[in-house]
Design a protein that fits this description.
The protein is α/β, with parallel strands linked by helices. The chain contains 15 helices and 8 strands. An 8-stranded mixed β-sheet has the order 3-2-1-4-7-6-8-5, with helices on both faces. Strand 2, helix 3 (92-98) and strand 3 (102-106) form a beta-alpha-beta unit.
Length: 416
């Protein structure tokens, strides 16, 4: 048994070193999210947008999204709305036509999923001969703030090529799951995305509320058909030296799952895709980052490593728990070496957790959201089992569709 404990001490020390360094790095970078100054829009309307909406059986929610897009404070002749009715068996296409958008019906039971649908519509746009300056992507369950296209037009006019809008939540108060996800997004928006924007580091693409320069897209191609097509495309941009930027004031509101199992399956898909993308791109990004002295590429590599970090922490916690109860006094766990005193690790994690209510305060969220902090630690813990299962099923490429039911409108959401 002594050999086992010696080996575990070595592994545990390695885990402490890696996860501790990444926690300290995130702690330092997150402080740059404290500052946000709303930028003035300097450029008038000029860019022409193709707004594309991939949708699979979304008849319940697609109408309010289309209405919010068509209510943009932007000239109607400077954007077209393209709805992809992707392998639909309901009335999604009919609802789209009723709301006056361009409907493209796609049937392909082999190439299923959002990434394939986006790749297909881009081919259709190429064949149509229509000229656009940029592509904007929304998920079918979204609602879009009225100044979204105006802000994206301004960012493009300033020379940016890939822009991610703010990822808000339209149903945070529906359940303990949706409020936990809402808190997670509000925190990430401020302490991860805005922090990296202030540091001139690449933001993480969220798959919706995304704006891409059309000539760049034609040049590099979409080629992102994994379970996390947004992450895959963002990584390819960074590899090419194109830094995705964060537009904190261009807001999109997303429907979050309300049940634990729906959330579990959604997060499982995210983590499976994350592992797939990390396997292909993480090491090359590290090599490029070192060779080119590019902190942006190293930062993206660190982001790709995050699921592995989560899994390491979860497994270490499980083993320590078992060792604690391997003997009545818990001596075995107490004998495990620590690189730093336990109090230091507790302090670091406490500071990270205390940043969450601070982020809620800075984002001016509804006061009821603070009650979600009670259940948040358990929800965060569940990322461990999700990530562990994702690691062992990371070769899965089957798309899991999250059912959406929140057919609320933007003005209704503000009063909820």
């Amino acid at each position: 048994m002594s050999l086992f404990y010696d080996m575990f001490e070595i592994v545990y020390a390695f885990i402490q070193m890696i996860t501790g360094a990444l926690a300290a790095y995130q702690l330092v970078t997150s402080f740059f999210g404290f500052w946000h100054r709303k930028e003035k829009i300097l450029h008038g309307p000029g860019k022409r947008f193709a707004v594309i909406i991939p949708a699979h059986n979304e008849e319940r929610v697609i109408g309010p999204l289309i209405d919010s897009v068509k209510s943009q404070h932007y000239p109607e002749d400077l954007f077209d709305v393209h709805l992809i009715a992707d392998n639909c068996t309901d009335h999604t296409a009919d609802v789209g036509r009723l709301h006056g958008v361009l409907v493209h019906e796609r049937t392909d039971h082999e190439k299923r999923g959002k990434g394939f649908a986006i790749e297909w519509i881009l081919q259709q746009l190429e064949l149509s001969g229509e000229t656009y300056d940029a592509i904007v992507m929304f998920d079918a369950d979204n609602l879009v703030a009225p100044d979204f296209l105006s802000i994206m037009n301004d960012k493009l006019s300033r020379g940016h090529k890939v822009i991610q809008g703010y990822l808000g939540v339209k149903n945070p108060m529906d359940s303990w799951v949706s409020i936990s996800l809402g808190i997670s997004y509000w925190f990430d928006n401020r302490m991860w995305q805005e922090a990296r924007q202030n540091l001139n580091l690449p933001c993480a693409l969220g798959g919706t509320g995304l704006c891409v320069d059309y000539p760049l897209l034609q040049e590099m191609g979409w080629e992102a058909t994994s379970l996390t097509e947004d992450l895959e495309f963002g990584v390819r941009c960074v590899e090419r030296g194109v830094i995705p930027i964060w537009a904190h004031d261009a807001k999109v509101y997303d429907e979050k799952p309300t049940t634990f199992m729906a959330s579990f399956h959604q997060r499982l898909r995210w983590q499976q895709g994350h592992f797939q993308c990390a396997k292909q791109h993480m090491v090359p990004l590290v090599k490029q980052g070192i060779r080119e002295r590019s902190w942006a590429k190293l930062d993206m590599a660190i982001y790709l490593f995050q699921p592995m970090r989560l899994m390491m922490l979860f497994l270490a916690a499980v083993v320590m728990f078992l060792l604690q109860y391997a003997s009545p006094s818990g001596v075995l766990a107490a004998q495990i070496a620590h690189l730093l005193p336990t109090s230091v690790w507790v302090d670091i994690n406490m500071v990270l957790f205390l940043q969450i209510p601070l982020a809620l305060l800075m984002e001016r969220v509804n006061w009821r959201a603070y009650f979600g902090l009670v259940v948040l630690p358990f929800f965060l813990w569940t990322w461990g089992p999700v990530t562990l299962q994702a690691f062992f099923t990371r070769t899965n490429h089957e798309w899991y569709h999250t059912v959406h039911r929140q057919a609320v409108r933007l003005d209704e959401m503000r009063s909820r």
